[in-house]
């Protein structure tokens, strides 16, 4: 059981092997409510694999994941989502054909309370609940600055707005733990700065606990209370942002491995 | 949600349709009435196929199989007991005694078809990938084999004839309108959005808590229900049910209708069904040979099959999303103009 009594997410010994390749080895994590924990590391370090394991999209080869006293390793993605752990994807995965509003509604309806009969007969329970969901979704779109796009197909949005929409969609499910996989990827410096402030704002507004994978050092150093550094599937350093910046092994992992990537 | 003005317009349009159908019913001859009924049944079939193939993105070819199940179920219930004893003397006692009114028979047709879909779908729809197409293809073959061989119930390849001609414009279009309404309600609810999310990206949908199996099963069984009803309507229109009417060719025709109209759209499904009922029918004269302006055109057998194929190729080449694409007819947009 979690050594840290405050921890809501406890992970230990988490390991994932793909055939010969060990993508993640003996990964451990204790997350306190309200924390923003940054995960950094070179390409292929295993960061996204952590998210895939936490959200049940892939099964661990070994290890345990405990969310609020409940073992969730080997549970289905749907179950994990229903427990309040929601993610975004590194390579944007919106429902491109559907409108911006519908994208967000799909996540919001995880908590819907009407049934098929109420839907087909358009009973008051259905009508009221749809209104409630819609106004909640519009509130989020407003917050993320996307309200003017509500009726446009998600796939037609500019790239940066699609990234924000992914976050809005995740928020619609009312998560407690939000996993953001490179939310600023492909953004220019001013966009990513704006996004950073947005992430801080939603964190404060919705009392979120956040796991953040991000290559943009400015963003991740600014947002995170704590950082983990992964390299070749292992945690090579963990601590406050200032400590990490000067950590010899981290500098080595970054400069030695991928000088090409800044 | 519709506002009051849109609601009024929808009701007016509905009243107009009903008025036109009443006019047609009293003034048109048998040939045209039958064509209108066939068109309505095709709308039912394509709109119900749209639940899986269009909205949820799982491809089913099983519709003719469900139509067959529905048609035979209803036939066995509506044929008068005396006649049944005569043409099907070896029927098990409980079936020989079973009789039901047409509406009950339609309901039974849909229900039995839906149960079949549930049994096929349950193992297959948990898998990722296009297994449903294969499984439903297998189902078509099984239905053919069973219907052809269990002749004490189905009269085998001869088929059952002398069904009471219960199908009329009101049954067909009553059910058509009910189905369109139901579809439309579904699309604008959590259920329809869940289906469309699965079509768009099943992995993302699942990570957001959408129940893949439940939505796929709902789409598949609901579609099968109406395919069963459609099959029963069809049987009681032409008053014959025989196995060769429910072949792979029928599945192909329905898929063509759906692709041409616009897969994923209710409006598209309706348009596809209407267009691809009328065009082959208009050109049917050519199939038996005709004379136009002094030129004698020899009979072109199998022409309608060719028309479906050519139309499909043209649409795929010129407008792969179909006539209306994913869009729906919108009263709001229409009122603005
Ligand atoms: N489904 C999979 N099958 C096989 N190998 C995989 C799979 N998913 C990830 N890997 C491998 O596991 C390793 C870790 O991948 P992961 O996506 O977790 O890296 P990452 O840290 O997110 O990298 P990036 O910064 O490029 O996103 C990589 O070598 C990758 O090729
Ligand atoms: Mg990654």
From TrEMBL, chain A:
SUPFAM superfamilies xrefs: P-loop containing nucleoside triphosphate hydrolases (SSF52540)
PROSITE patterns: ABC_TRANSPORTER_2
InterPro entries: AAA+_ATPase (IPR003593), ABC_AA/LPS_Transport (IPR051120), ABC_transporter-like_ATP-bd (IPR003439), BCA_ABC_TP_C (IPR032823), P-loop_NTPase (IPR027417)
Gene3D superfamilies: P-loop containing nucleotide triphosphate hydrolases
Keywords, ordered alphabetically: ATP-binding, Hydrolase, Nucleotide-binding, Transport
GO molecular function, a single term: ATP hydrolysis activity
An annotated GO cellular component: plasma membrane
Biological process, per Gene Ontology: D-alanine transmembrane transport; L-alanine transport; L-isoleucine import across plasma membrane; L-valine import across plasma membrane
Transmembrane segments: none
EC numbers for this chain: 3.6.3.-
One Pfam family this sequence matches: BCA_ABC_TP_C
Keyword Transport found: yes
Enzyme class: hydrolase
Domain named ABC transporter: residues: 9-257
Listed name of the protein: Lipopolysaccharide export system ATP-binding protein LptB
Automatic annotation (TrEMBL), chain B:
Location of this chain's protein in the cell: Cell membrane
Topology with respect to the bilayer: Multi-pass membrane protein
InterPro entries according to UniProt: ABC_transp_permease, LivM-like
A Pfam family per the record: BPD_transp_2
Keyword vocabulary terms for this entry: Cell membrane, Membrane, Transmembrane, Transmembrane helix
One GO cellular component, as annotated: plasma membrane
Repeat found in the keyword field: no
Gene Ontology molecular functions: branched-chain amino acid transmembrane transporter activity
Record field: transmembrane: 34-52, 64-82, 102-124, 131-150, 170-187, 218-239, 251-279, 300-318
Name of the molecule in the record: Leucine/isoleucine/valine transporter permease subunit
